[in-house]
Amino acid sequence: xxxxxxxxxxxxxxxxxxxxxxxxxxxxxAKFNLFGQTLYITTTHVCMSIIFAALVIxxxxxxxxxxxxxxxxxxxxxxxxxxxxxxxxxxxxxxAMGEKHGPRFANYVTSLFAFLLLCNLSGxxxxxxxxxxxxxxxxxxxxxxxxxxxxxxxxxxWGKLKGLFEPMFLFFPINVISEFSTPVSMSLRLFGNLFSGxxxxxxxxGLLKVFAIGWPAFLHVYLDxxxxxxxxxxxxxxxxxxxxxxxxxxx
Length: 251
Description:
By secondary structure, this protein is mainly α. The chain is built from eight helices and two strands, in the order H-E-E-H-H-H-H-H-H-H.
């Protein structure tokens, strides 16, 4: 029994030493005081700033390419990429929300999907994905929730309030909880999937060290590329479905 205990302690000490230099949470690079509160510039802020800059640069270049394009000539090069992105976004929106309502939300849904996709894929270049931070996913889900409630009130008017008491008034507390649980469930789903992937890759590199050469690329393909793209798609699809449920019967 004592031999087993010593062996177990030895394995535990080895794991502790291997993971002692790992950081699974957000790290602070700089701090400053604002109104008596200490605020930090973290890995999340740095990565988000780079992604914002990349999206702005892409948008500026795309705008100039479109302006200079000759409508009489077939598109080529970078213009083909832009058209592919626009057509894919339009097909996704029309398929989920219909031809009448889909284009109205094109700017928000497309921007949201582009931001989430780049955030989720940022682990491929050594960043810690901002979406592995609940402080990022919850505000995004909250914005979607505000849009859901706004469109529900706009198109259903008093029917939105009436729906909270259906099928009978006893269901009012359950319906209210259901409404407020939407941003929580959406944000936790995205955060949980991205954080678990980040955690797994940190453990792989931390425990195997020099032996983690080459083969972890297969894990990146699944955890960053496949799962990252899938979670971005699921988030925007839920956004479109929840909004359309509030306005789908309006006509």
